[in-house]
Structures are given as structure tokens and as C-alpha cells.
Amino acid sequence: MTQHQRLLIVDFGSQVTQLIARRLRELNVFCEIRPFNKVTDAALRADPPRAVILSGGPASVTEADSPRAPQAVFEIGVPVLGICYGQQTMMQQLGGHVESGHHREFGRAFVQPAEGHRREGLFRGLFETGREEVWMSHGDRVTRLAPGFEVIGTSANAPFAIVGDAARHFYAVQFHPEVHHTPNGRILLENFVRLAGFAGDWTMASYRDEAVAKIRAQVGDRRVICGLSGGVDSSVAAVLIHEAIGDQLTCVFVDHGLLRLNEAEEVVTMFRDHYNIPLIHADESELFLGALEGVSDPEVKRKTIGRLFIDVFQREAARIEGAEFLAQGTLYPDVIESVSFSGGPSVTIKSHHNVGGLPEKMGLKLVEPLRELFKDEVRALGRELGLPDSFIGRHPFPGPGLAIRCPGEITREKLEILRRADAVYIDQIRKHGLYDEIWQAFVAILPVRTVGVMGDGRTYDFACSLRAVTSVDGMTADYYPFTHDFLGETATRIINEVRGINRVMYDITSKPPGTIEME
Ligand code: XMP
Fold first, then answer.
1. How many Cα atoms within 13 Å fall on the side-chain side of residue 80?
2. Are the CB atoms for 97 and 143 separated by under 8 Å?
3. What angle do CA 435, 436, 442 make, to 5 degrees?
4. From CA 92, how far away is CA 62, in angstroms rounded?
5. Phi, psi of 198 (to 5 degrees)
6. Most CB contacts within 10 A, which of 31, 197, 379, 416?
7. Residue 331 pLDDT grade (very low, low, confident, very high; cuts 50, 70, 90)
């Protein structure tokens, strides 16, 4: 457990709960998100957080069996902020009244301080122009305040837009201060944590020191193995663990022959030569490419790669004497138990490749030093540990590698062409200073040959497609709007520099309905 002052976010299932945590982390406040039904009165009393935020959510407090905050939230003497659904359940639970239905409000609204309320306390630094733009999204509304509360902010349609009981530091807002569309929402959250007495002591330097101490305490003098993919998460985890326990860490890098140009060498050079981390480089391209011969179904490809990966990893790990721990780059979004109201399993679009299930099978305990971090915090930690920016800012690369960028049958010839085309494309993007603006960019080689003319001769070569997307989390994505000049120049370079390709397309599908990768 962290030593930091902790803020607890009770999650009622809003789509934007994670953003509350993001905003708080930006304020150097450590916070945890827990589903409403996993927080007990007893736990709150035994280990009280310094403050609580109640999130929004899709339910209606007027419905029977709708979620409630544990009553202890209001009894342990800490500041509480209710947001949207959080406001409504707070009012209901403390003796106010909420009505549903007849008035729905979505989108932009403006709030202003209620009469007699000055720009101090929760409102410090706000209302410079007399009002603040906010983002509303609710169907229900508070119709009677709980005892002790007063209205401190209103909007045209929401007489109870902001309510508060300053004596107890209980506040509640009908809008969402955590989203971008509430431009000064961050100031409101900052005021709340200041009133709650947070020191703002959550920094990457302190996280690094604590994580190192924690790893040492957990591992003692035993050995850890870490699967290295060359991606940011496993790399940062490896460097951090190495800082903690030195040569007690061994990394296993399974090279499936589906990596980009020079990628294997770069990973090995960086970890073995630069960081001096003991590294096993298992070159298994023959094994993987052999098993994939003649396979063109995307799910069969993914499952074959996943299965072989685990086999190889297990075999290599077994050679490391005395290994008792497996390190994984698990991030906080993977850990948060999301609140599901539908309860049904979601449809599998693609079988993702990971090492899940391995630790139990191998009898290993887990070391997961990034469990409390979001992706951009992992990057910040990487910088803190001295990993080069060029490495930290790399676009995501999928576990099954180039296999899913080569629709249809995979051949060595296609992979070689794909590697070279991809290198030219990424070089173009870097030269034009666009790399950091794009979330992910790559080439896919299409399973068709087309006719072209080069010099005086006919060509009959592969077509490829370029992909570049903007995204926040990979769940949704938009294609990147390159200029025609850029696209033209890139197509010319690929065709001139990469033998085997004579036609270039630009993929302008968004996600949904497409996915980012081809398969
Ligand atoms: P899709 O293609 O599903 O991809 O829109 C979303 C993001 O996930 C990456 N991706 C994977 N990452 N193992 C991974 O580690 C996988 O099996 C895998 N499949 C897709 C993809 O590159 C994109 O960033």
C-alpha cells in the first residue's frame, strides 16, 4: 500500500469515472477507484481515506435497488464531493429528495454562484467572468436539499447545480467537473482537495522510491523473471525492478519473427548493453513462422501465437534457477473493476495476446510495480528512470506483431517487404514532425497483387495500405488527416525504395466501425 494521503473515488459506473482519477493525479493527489458495492462500512472505518468523491453513473436514485454509497462515507468525518449521480444519492441518503424523469439536461450549461456566495473556498479562482461553463448529463434532479446543505451555485435549468455544507465539507455538483467540456472543472477539484487538506505529495520521484522499496521488501533475495516485449510498459517495469534488485532480475525476450525492422537488435542492445540487465533472447522465428504457414484465419493466427509464446516463455523461465516471481507491466486501468449494470459478457472481437494464466500454471507470484499507474504516468516514470524519450514515446505495437498486419497467409517474403515499407513510412512521419501527434501508425501488406508500370516495364506486385490514427486509449480512433502532399510523397518513396510494392492506399476507416489493426 502507498504511504500517501489517499482519496477514495466510489464508482457508480459513469463512463468518465477514470477522468476524475486523472484530474486528481495531475494535482499530485493519490486516489483509488472502487466500485460502490465493493466498499464496506467496516473498511471505511478501519482505514479511512482523507476524502471521498462519489462518481456519476447511469442509474436513477428513484429506482428501487439503485446503488448507494456506504453510509459510513458520511460518518467518518472526511470531506465528500458528489458528482451528478453522486450528488443525487448523497442528497437522498442524507435526507433530501430527488425526482426523476421529466427534465433531462445534456451538454453545455453555465453556472453562477448563488447570492451571497463569494469566490473563496470551493469557488476560489472561479467565476472570474461571473459564470462558468459546465457539462451537464443527467435525467434526475434534486428537489429538496438534505439538512445542513445550501445552494451555492445555480444554472438556468438547475437550481441545485452546486450545493454544499461548508461545516462538514460536503459538496455536490450536478455537472461533471472532470471532463474537458467543463473548462475550469480542474480548479473546482483542486479547491476540494485543498479544503480536504491534501499536500499534493504524489510525484513520480516519490513513486519511484516507494516502488523500489516495495519491490525489495516483496522479493527479498529471491529471483524475478520478466517477459520483455520492447513495449513501454514491460520496459519501464523491467528497469524499475532492476533498479530495486539488480541481477536478481532476468528478462526473457521472445522474438517471434514478427517484429519490425531492427526491433530485436534495439531491444537487446538497450537492455543488455545499456542497462546491463541479464536478458535471454529467445530467437524463435522458425518455430512461429513454421506454425503459421498456411494459416490465414485471424483468430487462428492470434491463438497460435499466444500459445507458442507461452510455451517458449515457460521453457526459458524454467532455466532460470530459483525464480519465484513473474514481473508484469499491469496498469491501473486493467486493475479497476468496472461496474457492470448489464452483467452480460461482452463480445470477443479479437483474442488479445497476453501472458494471463501463466503465473498460476508456473507456480509464480506476481510483481506488478505499475499497478497504480495510468499509461501517461508510466511514461513519466520511464523518464524519471532515464529511459530515452524516443523509446518512451513509441507507438503501441501489438503482441501478435506483424502477423495481424499481413492479412491472409503470412510468408517470409511478405514480412520482409512489410518491414521495409513500414520503416519508410515511419521515417516520413518522423521527418515531418508528426510522430507524436499520431497515436499509432503502420503499414499493412494486402493479400493482392496489382499491375503497375515502372520505367518501361510492367510490374505485378503487392499493394499496401497505410494506417495512422488519433486516439486516447485505442478503444475508439479516427484516421489522421495527412495532407495530400505528404501522402503523395510517402507513396512515391515506398514504391521507389521497397521492391515488391507497386501500389499504396491510405486507410481512412475510423474505429468503430473498423478496428485499428487489420485483423
Ligand atoms: P484494435 O485493432 O483492436 O487495436 O482496434 C486496439 C489497440 O490494441 C492493440 N492490439 C493489441 N495489443 N496484444 C496487444 O498487446 C494484442 O493482441 C493486440 N491486438 C491489438 C492495437 O495495436 C491497438 O493499439
1. 28
2. yes
3. 40
4. 9
5. -70, 140
6. 31
7. confident
Task: Please tell me if the CB atom of residue 190 comes closer than 6 angstroms to any atom of ligand 1.
Answer: no
Q: Is the CB of 400 under 6 A from ligand 1?
A: yes
1 pLDDT more than 50: no
Residue 497 vs residue 328, higher pLDDT:
497
Ligand 1 centroid, distance to 50 Cα (angstroms): 38
Q: Which residues touch 195 (CB under 8 Å, ≥6 apart)?
A: 79, 121, 122, 169
Q: Please give the Cα distance from 300 to 298 (Å, whole number).
A: 6
Q: Is 515 in the pocket of ligand 1 (CB under 6 A)?
A: yes
- Residue holding cell 485543498? 194
Cell of 71: 453510509
Q: How far apart are CA 123 and CA 171, in angstroms?
A: 11
C-alpha span between 69 and 291 (Å, rounded)? 53
Question: Rounded to whole angstroms, how far apart are CA atoms 187 and 132?
Answer: 11
482-491: Cβ within 8 A, 24+ apart: 482/434, 482/506, 486/428, 486/432, 486/434, 489/428, 490/424, 490/425, 490/428, 490/466
Query: How far is it, in rounded angstroms, from Cα 267 to Cα 259?
Result: 11
Ligand 1 centre to CA of 517 (Å) is: 7
Give the start-end residues of each E strand in 292-439: 323-327, 365-367
Pocket test for ligand 1, best of 235, 472, 516, 519 (most atoms within 8 A of CB): 516
Question: According to the model, what pLDDT value does residue 380 have?
Answer: 93
Task: Name the grid cell of 422.
Answer: 513500414
Q: Is residue 91 a contact partner of residue 112, using CB atoms and an 8 Å limit?
A: no
Q: Would you place residue 375 in the very low, low, confident or very high pLDDT band (cuts 50, 70, 90)?
A: confident
Between helix 232-245 and helix 204-219 the angle, nearest 10°, is 60
For 252, half-sphere exposure in the C-beta direction (CA atoms, 13 angstrom radius) is 25
What positions carry a catalytic annotation?
84, 176, 178
CA-CA distances (angstroms) from residue 115 to 83, 155, 254, 300, 363?
Answer: 22, 12, 66, 66, 64
Residue nearest (by alpha carbon) to ligand 1 atom 21: 398
The x, y and z cell numbers of residue 49, run together, are 481515506
The C-alpha atoms of residue 296 and residue 433 are separated, in whole angstroms, by: 36
- Residue in 53, 116, 108 with CA at minimum distance from that of residue 79: 53
Smallest CA separation from ligand 1 atom 14, residue: 398
419 Cα to the center of ligand 1, angstroms: 18
**Ligand 1 centre and the CA of 303: distance in Å?**
14
**Cα–ligand 1 centroid distance for 336 (angstroms):** 19
Residues 331/378, Cβ–Cβ less than 8 Å: yes
User: Is 231 touching ligand 1 by the criterion CB < 6 Å?
Assistant: no
Whether 399 is in the pocket of ligand 1, judged by its Cβ within 6 Å, is yes
Residue 239: name the closest of 264, 208, 214, 266 by CA.
208
At 357 the pLDDT is 64
